[in-house]
Amino acid sequence: MLRNYSSATEFYLLGFPGSQELRHVLFATFLLFYSVALMGNSVIITIVCVDKRLQSPMYFFLGHLSFLEILVTTITAPIMLWGLLLPGVLKISLTACIAQLFLNLAMGTIEFTLLAAMAVDRYVAVCNPLRYNIIMNSRTCTWIVIVSWVFGFLFQIWPVYATFQFTFCKSNIVDNFYCDRGQLMKLSCDDTLFTEFILFLMAIFVLFGSLILTIISYTYIISTILKIPSASGRRKAFSTCASHFTCVILGYGSCLFLYVKPKQTQASDYNKVVSLMVVVVTPFLNPFIFTLRNEKVIEALQDGVKHCCHLFRK
């Protein structure tokens, strides 16, 4: 498996250490998380598309966010699950590794751009409600989503290209459950310091650029909510933002630890834990965050369940 004379053309993912029994327990746990993430986010997409009460910019963005969560977890989770079933290490081709890394980074960039757009949407809804429908019209929302996708894909072309320009001659064993950029750089015999610094600056640009926009939006939102005279009015206004704010904390919190560090070659155990938060736990929690704290979504779900029960009884 070792390649100590030329660049690797395939990689082996070590995944999770431990006995086969432990790996089977992890497989069952992560399969449950993955299945719930797929079903939960698919349900959100469905009700946003079919329920007229959810035909607004907030839920339009929520539907796209749920679609992104499905993609984020599907890019990594199936390979991780397959690796847990195998008795040894999982082999992945160079092409598959490049594709996985690129899609993983691109989806993350799109998601942060979309979270920032959702923060601006909540700002307009709370601070400028009379002009909300004019500012956040369907054309504007559609263009925001298109720009987010184009930006996400274009922005990550150079980082992935630069990563795979290195010669991976130390080994072709990646100490993670997916093609992690930091662990890939550990395998290089070249000097990666300058590239790591550029990647650090690019991560800061994406994460802090969208985070600053989110913080500014919520500063105005909180200031406006505090000026509402009635407690019920303040509670109702804040409830429209609580789900998005929770999602922001989860998304930014984990990715700041994973990507915003000058030295990309972080300890593998640290990367595995944070990566699990990004690709498994957050997509799993997303449906619960946006359903348990949103009355309109709960009502739409209840009506959908009643409608399905009525159909089955016929």
UniProtKB/TrEMBL annotation:
Q: Name one GO cellular component term.
A: plasma membrane
A GO molecular function term, named singly, is: olfactory receptor activity
InterPro entries of this UniProt entry? GPCR_Rhodpsn, GPCR_Rhodpsn_7TM, Olfact_rcpt, Olfact_rcpt_6C-like
- Give TM regions: 25-50, 62-86, 92-120, 141-161, 197-221, 242-261, 273-292
Q: How does it sit in the membrane?
A: Multi-pass membrane protein
Chief localisation class: membrane
- According to its UniProt record, what is one Pfam family this protein matches? 7tm_4
Instruction: Note the coiled coil stretches, chain numbering.
Output: none
The UniProt record lists the G-protein coupled receptors family 1 profile domain at 40-290
**Subcellular location(s) per record:** Cell membrane
Keywords (A to Z) from UniProt: Cell membrane, G-protein coupled receptor, Membrane, Olfaction, Receptor, Sensory transduction, Transducer, Transmembrane, Transmembrane helix
The record's section on PROSITE patterns has: G_PROTEIN_RECEP_F1_1, G_PROTEIN_RECEP_F1_2
> PANTHER family attached here?
OLFACTORY RECEPTOR, OLFACTORY RECEPTOR 6C76
What the record says about family reads: Belongs to the G-protein coupled receptor 1 family.
Q: What is the protein name stated in its UniProt record?
A: Olfactory receptor
Q: Show the taxonomic lineage.
A: Eukaryota, Metazoa, Chordata, Craniata, Vertebrata
